[in-house]
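hi! just following up on the protien thing from before. the input was this:
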Amino acid sequence: MQQPNFFIVFNQIINMLLYKRLLTNKQTKMITKHLKGFVILIVILSGCNAENKVQQELSAANNPVYSDEIEARIERIISNLQVNTDIENEYIGMTLSERMEYYNTPGVSVAVINNGEIEWARGFGKSDLLNNEQVDINTLFQAASISKPIFALTVMRLKERGLVNLDRDINEYLESWKVPKNDDWQPKVSLRQLLSHTAGMTVHGFKGYTKTDEIPTVPQILNGEHPANSNKVRVAALPGKGFKYSGGGYTVAQLAIEDILSKPLSLIMEEELFRPLGLKYSTYQQPLPESLSNITSIAYPYFANEAIGGNNIYPESAAAGLWTNPTELATILIEVQKAVKGKSSQFKKETIDEMLSPQKAADFMGIGFFLGSEGDSLRFGHSGWNKGFVSQATAYKNIEYGAVIMVNSNEGNSLLREIMRAIAVEYEYPDFTSMPAVYIETDMDEVRSYIGIYADSDNNELVIKVSNDKVFLSYENQDPIELFKTESGEFRNRNLNMNIRFENDKLILTQYQNSTVYLKQ
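and the predicted 3d structure came back as:
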């Protein structure tokens, strides 16, 4: 079992005293200032300097080199990012370095799951431009909203032990704050609703705080009181009757779990999830412990400029406060996949099956995780966006595939999708991206039955013609547009975002997911 280093333990003790209200922020700063030299002296004398240990581990791990086969895969992916064109479902291949430059993104980190294990992980670019530090597999990034499903996993562990009931009124767990009334009506919301964004609660996300800001307590955040920089959290829609994304709701859940266990969330996550999984660097501590600062990426929100005020602090830890790397996130996703097969040492199969099942009022949402596709192609995952950091974690429930991508620039948000599509192409992920149209030879006998004039409900006309064994669409004053048949049976032009489908005496025109029906005249 991985033992926490001295500095992490010290930070946890301080956090516990703060949580118990035995220390004020001012007293904490004073204690830290006077004890800092003493603490460092003890660590040096004991030969347990945490920062040196971390640096040694980094030197050993760095960016591993894999077999020729895996290295060839990595090269194909980073040489063939799938970049959007103006035509739907058609992409051009570009290199990772080209796209990082285009998006002003200094650093990227990737981990890929194949056959139930991390097949490869690698950092690209820089984590610190000023000091010319390279991103490697251990470099820490802010996971932002990926914090939510990881927190939800820990709530599910507590459920397994009978410590929480997902459907109980959250006010029965809360001690230091209560869900407020709406006039004379007292809303009742549950952990299940909070974790699936169906509680109808307000506050989508959080701005974060700089190192020089006064950091609010969680009750102050929920009340929208100074020094909080967000609105108060309350119920603004019918609980359980619809989806409303709410980081505020996760902060309510955070406080409930802290009240139940009488511990700060960072310590709960360490004890309940990170340490059992052998994760060395992941933490919900806010601000980040100094012992991890030398493996932390700098935030470069836009134009590769370092974030003013440094990396933000997020006391709304369950919603946005996780620091981690793709390798450790992928380790968690693999444990979820193991649980689905009944092979996890950490989670029961029925727990994860419940977590990855569509929830009431949001069939695309599980508990913590967003869901995509269905059947054997069912995927679970989440994305994240904090100041200077964006990320994406995706895995399949029934197939042992997955990937995690983290970057240190908000401009790199589209880069996540380009990398993910390249990984999907290389590993042939099922039902992940829509494929480009495949054109086939047109059966002219079939097409002749489509010739004629078609009109919609407003008498707008489209005309289908055949000339020299070619099919054309004409309308208004436009020149004829040649149509080609696709493998799906639809017709389209190679350079336009439009599809035409013929059904009996109907022509159905679709552009950008909007369809219009034209009847044959």
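The first strand starts at residue 81 and ends at 84.
The two ends are 76 Å apart (CA to CA).
cheers
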